[in-house]
Amino acid sequence: MKYISTRGQVEPKGFIDTVLMGLADDGGLMVPEHIPVIAPETLNEWKSLSYVDLFLTIFSYYTNDEIPADDLRDLATRSYANFRHPEVTPITKIDDSLYIMELFHGPTFAFKDVALQFMGEFYSYVSKKQNEIIHILGATSGDTGAAAIQGVRGKEGIKICILHPHEKVSRVQELQMTTVDDQNVLNLSVKGNFDDCQKIIKELFGDLAFKKEYHLRAINSINFLRILAQTVYYFYAYLHIDQGQHQLKKINFSVPSGNFGNIFSGFLAQKMGLPINKLIIATNENNILERFVQTGEYKPGDFRSTYSPSMDIQVASNFERYLYYFVGEDAAKVSEYMNILKSEGQIVMTGDDLAKVQSDFAAYGASNQECLDMILKYKGDHDYLLDPHTACGITAYEKYQGDDEICITLATAHPAKFDEAIILCEIEQEFPEEIKELFAKPQYQEVVEHDTAEIVRQLESFYALD
Question: Where is the Tryptophan synthase beta chain-like PALP domain (predicted)?
Answer without folding.
Answer: 94-324
